[in-house]
Structures are given as structure tokens and as C-alpha cells.
Amino acid sequence: MSAALPPGPYLVLDAGVCEQAGHDPLDVVDAAAHAGLGVVQLRAKDRDVRALLDLTVAAAGRLTRFVGPPALVVDDRVDVVLAARRRGARVDGVHLGQSDLPAVDARRLLGVGTLIGVSAARDEDVDAALRTGVVDYLGAGPVRATPTKPDAADPIGLDGLAEVARRSTLPVVAIGGLTVEDAEPVRLAGAVGMAVVSAVCAHAAPYAAATELVAAWARARSHAASAS
Amino acid sequence: MSAALPPGPYLVLDAGVCEQAGHDPLDVVDAAAHAGLGVVQLRAKDRDVRALLDLTVAAAGRLTRFVGPPALVVDDRVDVVLAARRRGARVDGVHLGQSDLPAVDARRLLGVGTLIGVSAARDEDVDAALRTGVVDYLGAGPVRATPTKPDAADPIGLDGLAEVARRSTLPVVAIGGLTVEDAEPVRLAGAVGMAVVSAVCAHAAPYAAATELVAAWARARSHAASAS
């Protein structure tokens, strides 16, 4: 492990979902930062890698105006992180799916101090990620089926999430069809973060939605508290 | 420009096309090297980036047994080139489509001495590539429609190829549905290289096909010779 995952709500900012809801993705970046989210992951599955690179550089530019901004993480593409950094952007990490570049290769290219997350749903994914010794957190899901990722695997449910959290010595972020109502069950399942896409990007008021997520997370009972 | 394109036949080794024809892609790498091809570009559009990375490392391993091996180029992915190099593989370059990472960013990440090619069919693609000052060669096409890239743009024909070659101050490699019969018309159109996929990968005898391509290219009249 070489970088610490900020706990709490985690925004997966999907450019296409934002725009379909009438939001400029960069305004959603601002909203997330103002609301105090710990992580913004940039995703642009419906467009090409140039668009993801441009979005990354522009989002990093927006975040320079904040003190203690969210960690900025890029979905999938290690080369986008590297290219954005060469353009002067501050990018904090990358999130890798099971078919993306292996975490060991990503760590070699990105260096220590970069946040590296890996998606893990099955026991063998969890164990493999732990074995690498270079992963900072696991993204566990989908907890529920979600329209923003129609090609995703079968949902693991809150029980599956709890199983990943029990098995993992790394921090676990829940993902997949989650809303503000899920903050407490997700925390009770042992996750230290909760990723949302539509709950912010597709909301009529992203700032209000992000603020409510932060508040709901803060007041929810957690696994650690209930266990002590 | 920072690396020189080896002229002549240029193999685009598509892993899926090789396997459909019953060939291990690594055996086709060997065949290309034995036949004296100047460039082998690795492509695996039907599989994930991990497979492309593994193929790249394995192909580079095969080529260590040759003196003066073909230049090894990876399709699309700058991060695969970087990761393969970190694994100790010798990778010579990358070929970028119009929706891949911009050449300027690729050059910053890959450094001088890396061969960078860009696909260019329209006048504006050619001009944009020339303006960057960091591109080593252009891939012009598709000259003809091709089953190995069904999503490709409309064919530009040999006339379109000649137009790109006239416009470009960089070396031009023709691509798209080309066979051994095209060596002379392609050279007369002003291209210094000819990329093939199926003509080698899907041939029953890849080594024989590659050898015949090298011979046909060598005996074909060229634009330079016919102009002098």
C-alpha cells in the first residue's frame, strides 16, 4: 500500500451520465469538491481516450482552487494518468478493473504515492489483489444492478459486500446502484467508502445530492462502531 | 521525428486473426522475423489490455533471438509499451489512431528513439500529424475495405494513398486490404511501406507469405525510381 484512501462517499463521475442529465461534468467536479467528497473518479466509457485525457486535465484544473480537494482518480487508463501529469495536472490515482492493466504494472509506472484501486467481487479477485502488495483499496460490487454499467457482473448484494470486507485487509469501497439510503447498511457491512454514479451525476442538483451523501455517511452507524 | 521507419512490408499482427487461422501469434512473429519484415505491429482488438501486454512481452522475448529483428510496435496503448518495457521487453514504438492518445502526449511519455506512427486518411489528419513535429510516419488508409477492421472509414483507394504521400513530408505506410499484388502500385503511389494483416496472419503459411511479400516489394518499381 502506498497511498491512503479517503473514506466516505466516493464519486464516480461519468461524463456521459452528467451530460445526459444536463450537467457540465466540470461543474459536477466543483459540486463534489464543495460538498467535501473524498474521491472523484473520472470515467468516460462512451467516448475516446482523448476526451478522458482532456476531462482529467480540466478537472484537475478546477480542483487547484480548493484546499484539501478530493483525490482525483482516473478509471482504467494508466496512460491517461501519466499524460495528464506530463501536462501539469495533479492526478492522484487510477482505478483498475479485472481486464485493465495489472496493478503491479500500474504501480511500477505510477510510482509510490499514487492511489491504486482494483475492482474485486469474487474471493479470488480479492485474494489476487491482496497478494500483489501494491493495491491501496478494493472496489467491491456491483452491490446492486445498475443502469450506468449494463455490462457489469451479477450483483453481490450487501451480503457479498460484507464477505469482501471480511476477507480483505485493504479498505473496501462499495459500488453499484447505491443511494443515500445505503450509507448505513454499507457502513455496517464493513465498507469504508461508498461509490455512487447516478446518485450525484444524474441528480437534478448534484451539489445538494453530494452534501446529503456526506451527511448521511457521517451520521450512519459503522461496522467498527457497532463491533466495539 | 525521432526514429526511422524501416521501409517495406509491415506486418500488423492481429492475435485474433492469427488464431482463427490456426496459428500461434508468436509463431507468426517468428515467421515475420525470419522473412525479414521491417516492422511487426501487435494488435489484439478482440481481447483485453492484459492479453495485449502479455503478447507484447512474449513477442519481444521471441525477437531477442534475432540479429536485426523487426521493429516491434504496439497498437493504440502507450501504457502497454511502458509496462512491457518495465517488464524488460524491448518495444520500439506505438501506432496511434485518431481517437487514441495524442502523439504529443505519447512522445512525452515514450521519449525520443521511440517510433510513433499515426493513422491519417484525410488531408486534415495529415496536416495535424505533420504539425505536431513528433510523428515518425503516417499509416494511410484503408486503401481498400477490409474484413479485419469492419469499423474502418471509407476506403481511400490508391488515388487517396498517392494524395496522402504527396501531401506528407513523413514516410507513408499504406494499409487496408492489401496483398502481395499491391506491392508495385503501392510503391508507385509513393508509399515507403505496406501494412498487411490477413495476407500473412490468415495465410495458411505465414512464413512463405511474408517471404513472398518481401520479394515482391524488392522487385516492384517505386515512385522514387520512376520519378528519377
From TrEMBL, chains A, B:
GO biological process: thiamine biosynthetic process; thiamine diphosphate biosynthetic process
Molecular function per GO: magnesium ion binding; thiamine-phosphate diphosphorylase activity
Keyword check for Secreted: no
Transmembrane domains' residue ranges: none
The protein's required cofactors: Mg(2+)
SUPFAM superfamilies per record: Thiamin phosphate synthase
Amino-acid positions noted as binding Mg(2+) in the UniProt annotation, renumbered to this chain: D76, D100
EC number: 2.5.1.3
Sorted UniProt keywords: Magnesium, Metal-binding, Thiamine biosynthesis, Transferase
Protein residues bound to 4-amino-2-methyl-5-(diphosphooxymethyl)pyrimidine: Q41, L42, R43, A44, K45, D75, S119, K149
Domain Thiamine phosphate synthase/TenI: 10-200
GO cellular component, one term: cytoplasm
Enzyme class: transferase
Binding site for 2-[(2R,5Z)-2-carboxy-4-methylthiazol-5(2H)-ylidene]ethyl phosphate: T146, P147, T148, G177, V197, S198
A Pfam family of this chain: TMP-TENI
Coiled coil start-end: none
Catalytic activity: 2-(2-carboxy-4-methylthiazol-5-yl)ethyl phosphate + 4-amino-2-methyl-5-(diphosphooxymethyl)pyrimidine + 2 H(+) = thiamine phosphate + CO2 + diphosphate; 4-methyl-5-(2-phosphooxyethyl)-thiazole + 4-amino-2-methyl-5-(diphosphooxymethyl)pyrimidine + H(+) = thiamine phosphate + diphosphate; 2-[(2R,5Z)-2-carboxy-4-methylthiazol-5(2H)-ylidene]ethyl phosphate + 4-amino-2-methyl-5-(diphosphooxymethyl)pyrimidine + 2 H(+) = thiamine phosphate + CO2 + diphosphate
Pathway: Cofactor biosynthesis; thiamine diphosphate biosynthesis; thiamine phosphate from 4-amino-2-methyl-5-diphosphomethylpyrimidine and 4-methyl-5-(2-phosphoethyl)-thiazole: step 1/1
Cofactor notes: Binds 1 Mg(2+) ion per subunit.
Annotated family: Belongs to the thiamine-phosphate synthase family.
General function of this protein: Condenses 4-methyl-5-(beta-hydroxyethyl)thiazole monophosphate (THZ-P) and 2-methyl-4-amino-5-hydroxymethyl pyrimidine pyrophosphate (HMP-PP) to form thiamine monophosphate (TMP).
PANTHER family: THIAMINE-PHOSPHATE PYROPHOSPHORYLASE, THIAMINE-PHOSPHATE SYNTHASE
Annotated protein name in UniProt: Thiamine-phosphate synthase
The gene coding this protein: thiE
